[in-house]
Amino acid sequence: xxxxxxxxxxxxxxxxxxxxxxxxxxxxxxxxxxxxxxxxxxxxxxxxxxxxxxxxxxxxxxxxxxxxxxxxxxxxxxxxxxxxxxxxxxxxxxxxxxxxxxxxxxxxxxxxxxxxxxxxxxxxxxxxxxxxxxxxxxxxxxxxxxxxxxxxxxxxxxxxxxxxxxxxxxxxxxxxxxxxxxxxxxxxxxxxxxxxxxxxxxxxxxxxxxxxxxxxxxxxxxxxxxxxxxxxxxxxxxxxxxxxxxxxxxxxxxxxxxxxxxxxxxxxxxxxxxxxxxxxxxxxxxxxxxxxxxxxxxxxxxxxxxxxxxxxxxxxxxxxxxxxxxxxxxxxxxxxxxxxxxxxxxxxxxxxxxxxxxxxxxxxxxxxxxxxxxxxxxxxxxxxxxxxxxxxxxxxxxxxxxxx
Length: 404
Fold this sequence. Notes:
This protein is α/β, with parallel strands linked by helices. It is 42% helix and 19% strand. It comes from Tritonibacter horizontis.
């Protein structure tokens, strides 16, 4: 078969799969109309996909005069993908089918020794989750790992991730690929959370979104025109290093970041201690503020102002349609309400600021969307340059129920 014929076949197959994934259950005739391909071409492709187990019959059309047509959908159990959220305190793994539905989930405290021990832990959890699902490990095709740092494309090391020891000294994707025997992709966890909110959070396909996570640290993921903005070195959204809050020229700001020093966990604990003269953890500070403790109230007010400054800076640069705030601290309503008020005071136009709809499963959802896209392109576009197959998300309630 000529190169041109191969390209044409891959393009046709990609179009058919996209139509079935987006509109299924759907008949061959409808697929032909959607794709513009001939009925004969569609019949041949669908027949091959059905024989190989990638699509399945799910009934017949109804309500039409004359002969009813068989309708098809993606076969959910034909393959599975793993989405991994690697944090400084927990590792969370979700195994999903071809529709994005969560089949199994495993969660453990992150291995404190870090490095290759964390890689082995991830591999073990992925294999355990896969074993819980129909088809087992043999069905596993692709894994995506969200990391609290910046993946270095040259070495595979994870930079700017001080909470996981030794992760900056290893090729994480390569090592995990060797252990699992499947394709592995690594992405910043906040970037994945942004994609997850965009994919599952009832956003329009082309909607621009900024996701800001506030927890142990502070970071942002930027989705423009439906696509993740990574930047030249993959560090787009590292807003903890915005040069305000603390003095950006102090040596400490080169490791933690001037904004992060005044707007994340350590900042809340430290500011309250400085005002009150006693130690409380972050939940304790929120509880104290709710009880009317003036030092706690001032602490949360100060943090909200700094987060609002970051939002104003992001909005001034990329002008998103919505800013979504998540993370263990950012998702707290007490802080979110303060942030909204501060944004209105420091930016001249209305800014839509919403709470994360996915909570601690946002990064898992984003990882699933990337893994499914890679899987579909690999299988059905056969690596075709520039190919893109958008996988429709499952219902958010179904995803969260399956991942609970």
